[in-house]
Structure formats: C-alpha cells, structure tokens
Design a protein that fits this description.
Layout: H1 2-97, H2 104-107
C-alpha cells in the first residue's frame, strides 16, 4: 500500500496545486473586476456631468436662437419701414424738384414742400 499511499499523496499534492492556481486566477480576476467597477462608476459620473452640461448648452442655445430670431424679425421690420420711408422721401423729393420755384434747402424742410 505504500505505492498506493505515495500515489494518493502525489494526487493530493497535484489537487492542492490546482486549487492554489485556481485561487490565484480568481484573485487576479477579482482584482480586474474591482478595477472595472471603479472605471464604471467614474464613467457613469462623467456621463452624468456631461449630460448636465449638454442640457445647459441646449438651454443656452435655445435662448440664443430665440434672441437671434427676434433680431431677424426686428431687422426685417426695420428694413421694411426704412424702405417705406425711402419711398416717401423719393416721392417727396420728386414733388419738390418738380416745382421750379423751390430751392434744394426749401425742399428738405417739410413745411415748404
């Protein structure tokens, strides 16, 4: 039985060695899991921060675009009013200059035309 005892001891030693290797691999894997969990938490925090920042930028853009649209509207209305004024002045100038007795200085005073 000594041969059987030696074989059993050898088998036992191999089994212990395999268990130790598995424990080492498990510990290494566990360390990788912990690192990835830390990275995951960091990334989730970064996503939250970037999502908040994106929301603020979107709000700012919406306000600025609304302001720009108001500027566009005001500019268009002002240009339209200016063109109407220019038409009135052209009609006024033609009327003034069509009268031979009116001088240029008199023409540009509303009371004289």
């Amino acid at each position: 039985m000594t041969q059987q005892g030696a074989a059993l001891q050898n088998y036992n030693n191999e089994l212990v060695k395999c268990i130790e290797e598995l424990c080492a691999k498990r510990d290494e894997l566990n360390q990788q899991i912990l690192q990835e969990e830390e990275e995951k938490v960091k990334l989730q925090n970064d996503i939250r921060i970037l999502t908040d920042k994106l929301a603020r930028v979107n709000q700012s853009l919406a306000k600025k675009m609304a302001s720009r649209n108001e500027f566009d509207k005001t500019i268009a209305e002002t240009e339209t009013a200016y063109m109407k004024v220019m038409v009135v002045f052209r009609v006024h100038d033609r009327a003034c200059f069509s009268r031979p007795s009116v001088s240029l200085v008199q023409c540009h005073t509303v009371r004289n035309c």
